């Protein structure tokens, strides 16, 4: 299928990251460098123009290959950034869930304390009313006791 020898493949000077391409993709990439040895195209009148066309085609193919490799690397980085962003968001969600639970616990303690203080306040208010009533009764008794003493003097 490929017309390139093993030596041609080894002499090809292009950095391809390991484990980035499937065997099928590698064959497709290498097929871009196979020179078309078929009959000359209908408008070519000399061997020189064929070589120029082949050179341009090879340069275009090399450019396409570099662009494809660049696009793959860009996509890999983009996937990595997306994964990292998703991990960051997941960590933030976990942190906020924990913080939310802590705030709920604090709110529960504050509400319980408020209920205790409200009951204590109600009890103190009732005791205050009782003490005021008792004081009022004592003042009346004292006033009643002083009235007969004033009349006798």
Number of helices: 3
Distance between the termini: 141 Å
Proportion of residues in β-strands: under 5%
Radius of gyration: 47 Å
Helix and strand run: HHH
Overall mean confidence score, pLDDT: 80
Helix content: over 70%
Total number of beta strands: 0
For the biggest sheet, the summary is: none
Oligomer: single chain
What structural class do you assign from the helix and strand content? mainly alpha
Shape: rod-shaped
Point out poorly predicted stretches. Answer: none
Organism: Momordica charantia
Keywords: DNA-binding, Nucleus, Transcription, Transcription regulation
Protein name: Basic leucine zipper 4
GO molecular function: DNA-binding transcription factor activity; protein heterodimerization activity; transcription cis-regulatory region binding
Question: Can you put this structure into words, describing what you see?
Answer:
The chain is mostly helical and 153 residues long. The chain has helices spanning 6-11, 23-31, 47-152. It starts with 5 loop residues before the first helix and ends with a helix.
